Amino acid sequence: MGETRKTTLHTLETAILGKSALLIIDTQNDFVEGGSLAVQGGKSIVPTINKLLSLPGFALRIATKDFHPPDHISFARTHGKEEFADIEIHPPEDLAPDEHDRDTLGPLKQTLWPVHCVQGTPGESLAPGLNVDALDAVVHKGTHKGVESYSAFIDPWGLCPTGLDGILKEGRVDKKSRASGDGSEVEKTQADEGEERVPVKDVFIVGLASDFCVKFTAMDAVREGYEYRTWVITDATKAIKPDEIDKHWEEMKSKGIVLVTVDEVVQKLG
Ligand SMILES: [Zn+2]
């Protein structure tokens, strides 16, 4: 299904040691057991992710957080509607003030979720046991109340880049670059050691959920303008709907994303 990229698929043999990034998607309290939008088995991947975090082969280790204001557009509560209903949403006027722009960007289908990952609440914290000391940065997404972002790079309207692409292209986290404002907030968690860095070309993606934010992040990573060589480490992810995950894997593969296992990555980058 879908067309395969014309370029040769990257393999683990082509991953560049010391110049790869590990992206840990939305491994937060609200997305693991006990959370408001729990993914079955979410907690079980934390030790696996810690094992990956300990590998010497990664230049950057970055966690992402869904990080919503209390009246976020993706919450059923915000609209007074039932959870998991679908609605149409439009670009917010403060970010797209021109009516013509808003029409061009168009409405999007939005599934309405239970309230989750509200800024400053325990639900948005990284899941217990995750080795946060190993992280170079935490990137926030969905920070504007009118914009949803499954991808850790940017929302579908292109209004709120998260800053992730900049970090990867820099190959480092700049101590002074605690950017702020709509969607571009980057939280620095570890001092820069001042070592020489090069742009990251290879990204390895893990976390939650494989059929939503992991998938959308991976699909963005390979598209025009980003064009990272992208791997998803399938056994370090969990799906909201495991029964349907195969079709998502196929879709990712058709875009040139390579699926690998933890063992394969440990062998190569360990
Ligand atoms: Zn969310």
UniProtKB/TrEMBL annotation:
Keywords: Hydrolase, Metal-binding, Pyridine nucleotide biosynthesis. Residues 173-194 are annotated as: Disordered. The keyword Cytoplasm does not apply. Its EC number is 3.5.1.19. It comes from the Eukaryota. One of its GO terms (molecular function) is nicotinamidase activity. Residues 20-172, 199-263 form the Isochorismatase-like domain. One of its GO terms (biological process) is pyridine nucleotide biosynthetic process. Belongs to the isochorismatase family. This is nicotinamidase. It comes from Coniophora puteana (strain RWD-64-598). The lineage of its organism: Eukaryota, Fungi, Dikarya, Basidiomycota, Agaricomycotina.
